[in-house]
Amino acid sequence: MRAYYYMSLWLLIIIISLFAIAEGLQFEQFITDASPWIERQGYFAGVFSISLLCLDVILPIPSSLIMTLNGTVFGPVWGALISLIGGLASVLFGWWIGYRSQGFIVQKIEEKERIIAHKYLTKWGPLAILFSRPLPIISEIVAIMAGTLPIPIYITV
Prior knowledge:
The chain has helices at about 1-25, 25-35, 35-40, 45-55, 65-100, 100-110, 110-130, 140-150, 155. The protein is mostly helical. α1 crosses α8 and α5 (about 65-100) runs parallel beside α8 (about 140-150).
């Protein structure tokens, strides 16, 4: 189980590093200044918004700002629907990253630890995923870690 803690710590370091790089490049300022452009794009803005929310797994995208902008541009019903789809896409993308990393995990972590982690995540995983969703960075780590274990994607979402 210790190896999964270390892996989670490394994921935390990598994600924070990506956030620091994006902050240095003033990525958030681009997103904030892009709101007039988004309003002019019509329905393409919905696809763009979903893409931004999906990329929130690896980039410091202010998802609450994007979701608020969805409500402003598309209205409360369509904005909420687009935000929900984007949030689900974000979790699926994180799970997919973890799923694609399983080969690396098998090489680096002993089977005994993988079995313990699977048992722990099977018991507490859905609850951990539920409570981690509103927490920045932690939600991405939990989604990625859920993908590294043989946890069905429908539990993650």
